[in-house]
Amino acid sequence: MSIRKQLTICLAVLAVVLQLRVHATTRYAPFYGGEVLNQGDALRSNNDCTELRFTYDGAYYNRLEFRSISDNPGCGYSNWDSYNDYEWQGRGNGIHEGQLEPRGYRAAQAVMQNDGNFVIYDLEQSPAAPLWATHTDGNGGAYLNVQGDGNLVIYSASNAVLWSLY
Fold it and tell me: 136: which residues sit within 8 A by CB, 6+ positions away?
């Protein structure tokens, strides 16, 4: 293969990688019904202490990561990820939806649904298949909050706790 072709391929790959990074966003909590976290997106606590990131970097598996990002006084500590929490269930009573978790290089999306359920979908199945859910449906107006105290919580429209990681 000529050097020119190799350079063209390298530039095309670099353009794709840069495009993926450009589209990744960081938003601040709360996270309301109808909002979506795409791979690479993050949802951060209002005090910049903790962050929920939907990770996919091409070298590791898709996973939700909830981490402390600051050691400032008043910040809580968290270090949880869905990959090491067997089949995305465990803490918070999130329930894995299928027997074959499609980890790896697959398109996925985390959605706070209008019915109050926070769900991770495998986008490579048709229709998109739920992988993991908090099972908080039936609670229109509910929202997900990334808290600076190190907890991830779904609140009802009246601010009652429906689900929490810790």
Answer: 116, 117, 118, 142, 154, 162, 163
